Amino acid sequence: MDSNILIVEDNADNRQLLAWLVEDAGYPHTEVGTAEQCFLMLEEQAVSLILMDISLPGMDGLTATKKLKRELLTSHIPVVACTGLEVKGRESALLEAGFDALLTKPVSYQLLHTVLEKFTPTVH
Ligand SMILES: [Mg+2]
Per its UniProt record, what PANTHER family does this chain match (predicted)? Predict the structure, then answer.
C-alpha cells in the first residue's frame, strides 16, 4: 500500500515547500488549503498521514484535529501539526488535543523524514 500524505496548509509557499519535501522523501501526496477541504478529501481518498497547519481560514487545525480524532473513520490517521511561533508554550496542549507529533515551520527535511518514517506503514 502506498502512503498518501495529505497536506493541509493555507499559505501557498508553505504548502509548496511541504509538497517538495514530501515528494523528495518519496511519498505521494495531496494538498488542500482548508480543514473543510481536508474532510472532503478524506471521503474520497485513503490517507496515511496528515500534515496539518494550525492557523487556517475557517476551521483551525486544532479544531479539525480534535474532530478527526473523535470520528471512528479518521481517528486512526496520524496528524502532525506544522506550527509557527503562535503555538510557542502550548506544545503539550497540542499533543493532548490529539496531534501525534509537532513540526515547527520552516519544516526541515530531516525532521519531516523522521516523522514520515515513524507514522507511515510502508518502508521507504
Ligand atoms: Mg496557515
Answer: HYBRID SIGNAL TRANSDUCTION HISTIDINE KINASE J
Query: Looking at this protein, which amino acid is placed at residue 122?
Result: T
Question: What does pTM read for this prediction?
Answer: 0.93
User: Which three cell numbers mark 90?
Assistant: 502550548
> Which tens digit of pLDDT belongs to each residue from 78-108?
999 998 877 788 889 899 989 999 999 889 9
98: left (phi over 0), alpha (psi -120 to 50) or beta: left
Give 52 Cα–ligand 1 centroid separation in angstroms: 9
Q: How far is the CA of 8 from the centre of ligand 1 (A)?
A: 9
The answer regarding whether domain 5-119 maps to CATH 3.40.50.2300 reads yes
